[in-house]
Design brief:
single chain, 561 residues, mainly alpha, Serine Threonine Protein Phosphatase 5, Tetratricopeptide repeat, Four Helix Bundle (Hemerythrin (Met), subunit A), 3-stranded mixed sheet, two-stranded antiparallel ribbon, 23 helices, globular
């Protein structure tokens, strides 16, 4: 019986094979559950490209390496990229180009279907993703980057376009988007509010985003192309009807997190990580803390918690040299002196660190300075239980809201109204015709406070020491830096361009300077070697590139030369 069943199965398989062989192979090679790219509804692509743009941008700017370099956070373990400028390895841009291929498909299908809203949306996201690429690496494939299906040599091995070409192309894409998105809602076909996970299908909101991003990229090139940037920004501001920009926080380009799985949740949340290891390693950076404390900034308490077990130097429990009482760790002054410990001071900690001193932070919001230790940072501030990936009770942690998978203040933000205000304040500082520097500066401060739920503190905050308007460039850039919490990528671009704010770091960095760019991926070096070599030949070396050669994170690309 078993033999007969086996023969029957073999016969059945042969029958299936015979019938299958009669079918055309192209007919068989079709996924019955898939969607044909040539006929896909553009709205099916919209949420994919928005999410693939917003998620990595938030993650990099919140707890990625650039968030450490820009001194928002440090990590207490697995931290060399954030804490010590360990940017010597190549970084792949494949994720951005993968998203750009989907954006191209969205644009092409929207053209086929006459769906202008989706075309405009695609152009905005195309500009944004190419902006990240050139901001991060420098020269990059652009004009021929997405033409591989054509199959020509120049499409398979694309040239690296100059940063100037890319930035100007970005701005032209945004201008085209502004035109496509300039009609009334009823003039568009096929808008899906559910598909647009950023603006619920609002052409006006996307149009404002396009023009607000134009302000960002004009300011980006303002040092290299001042006349071009000036005329562009002045044209936008003088023609509000033609170029509407953000006018309030309700215009911010933000994306909520769904929170149904770790992949669609706030990064490093504890809802899907019971160990809390990822969350607990992200801790406050002293550079950010010092400025917020100096300004008595109410946003500090929104973003971070006070130190769980603060350290105090006191004779209260003499002769005990080191004792924990009621949640506070007390160190006897004579013991501190005998051990050679040094209390953190924002003006002297760098010298103490260079001398190899152990630094103790006794502030309510204790924090880790950048590049302060060469050993594992989980030891910092006399952590009694130093473990890789463990929690340091003596360092301020993220606010509890960041443990959640989603929340009202947990949004991926591409650009904000506050940023637009600070851009225009800087433009006014340059003498461009955009309005009052003080007005734009104060609007930016107010908008940021309101974004984080502390707008009621504006009147007292704006009159405080260091915050009250003084007309300086440093003041604009410092407040813009604070307001860009979770958006370190943009802060990094500002710092490279202006040198502001003046960020201090210790002697334990990979180099004695902050990194300026990402190194090209090895795939480009190996597969597109001629164009890669041409691109790196245009980089300018600095005193910190000798270990790497020209393709170094400390080399200067066109924007910084």
């Amino acid at each position: 019986m078993k033999f007969m069943k086996t023969q029957f199965k073999i016969l059945l398989v042969l029958i299936v094979v015979v019938f299958a062989s009669c079918k055309d192979l192209t007919e068989m090679n079709v996924n019955p559950n898939g969607v044909d790219p040539s006929t896909v509804n553009p709205n099916l692509l919209v949420p994919t490209v928005i999410v693939a743009t917003a998620q990595p941008y938030l993650s990099n700017g919140y707890n990625g390496n650039v968030a450490g370099v820009m001194q928002y956070v440090q990590k207490s373990g697995w931290s060399s990229g954030l804490n010590n400028f360990d940017w010597v390895n190549e970084v792949s841009w494949s994720g951005y180009y993968g998203n750009l291929r989907n954006i191209k498909q969205l644009y092409d299908r929207s053209m086929d279907e006459g769906m202008e809203f989706q075309q405009g949306l695609a152009l905005v996201l195309r500009a944004f993703n190419f902006g990240i690429i050139t901001d991060s690496w420098g020269d990059a494939p652009y004009t021929a980057a997405l033409n591989a299906p054509i199959g020509a040599q120049e499409d398979l091995f694309p040239v690296f376009d100059s940063q100037e070409t890319i930035y100007k192309g970005i701005i032209e894409d945004l201008k085209m988007a502004n035109t496509l998105l300039s009609k009334t809602n009823d003039a568009y076909i096929g808008i899906s509010q559910d598909a647009d996970v950023m603006y619920n299908g609002s052409p006006l909101k996307w149009r404002k985003l396009a023009n607000s991003l134009m302000l960002r990229y004009y300011m980006r090139v303002s040092t290299k192309l001042p006349d071009y940037a000036k005329s562009g920004i002045e044209e936008i501001i003088s023609n509000a009807g033609t170029y509407p920009v953000f006018t309030g926080n309700e215009d911010d380009a933000t994306m909520d997190y769904v929170g149904t799985s770790n992949s669609d949740s706030w990064p490093a949340n504890t809802t899907y990580d019971n160990s809390q290891s990822n969350f607990s390693r992200i801790q406050l950076c002293a550079g950010f803390r010092d400025v917020l404390v100096d300004f008595n900034d109410p946003r500090l308490a929104v973003w971070f918690k006070k130190t769980k077990v603060p350290i105090k130097i006191s004779t209260k429990y003499d002769p005990e040299v080191d004792i924990k009482v009621d949640g506070v760790r007390y160190l006897l002054p004579s013991y501190v002196a005998s051990q050679g410990y040094v209390v953190y001071n924002k003006n002297t900690w760098q010298a103490a660190s260079a001398d190899g001193k152990t630094i103790i932070d006794t502030m309510d919001y204790a924090a880790i300075p950048t590049a302060v230790v060469g050993y594992e940072p989980y030891n910092y501030n006399l952590n009694p239980k130093p473990t890789q990936g463990g929690y340091n009770d003596h360092i301020s942690a993220l606010a509890d809201m960041y443990k959640n998978a989603t929340g009202d203040l947990q949004k991926a933000r591409l650009i904000s109204y506050a940023e637009v205000c600070f851009i225009l304040a800087e433009a006014a500082k340059k003498g461009w015709t955009v309005g009052s520097q003080q007005t734009w500066y104060e609007k930016g401060v107010k908008a940021s406070l309101e974004t984080w739920g502390v707008g009621g503190d504006y009147s007292s905050y704006i009159s405080g020491s260091g915050v009250a308007y003084d007309g300086s460039q440093e003041q604009i850039m410092t407040q813009k830096w604070i307001g860009n919490w979770t958006n370190a990528t943009e802060s990094g671009c500002d710092w490279r361009r202006t040198g502001l704010p003046d960020l201090k770091f210790g002697a334990r960095g990979k180099r004695d300077a902050m990194p300026l760019r990402l190194r090209y991926d090895a795939n480009e070096k190996n597969r597109n070697s001629a164009n890669y070599s041409d691109a790196i030949s245009k980089l300018v070396e600095t005193p910190f590139t000798s270990q790497d050669g020209k393709d170094s994170s400390w080399s200067k690309f066109w924007l910084l030369q």
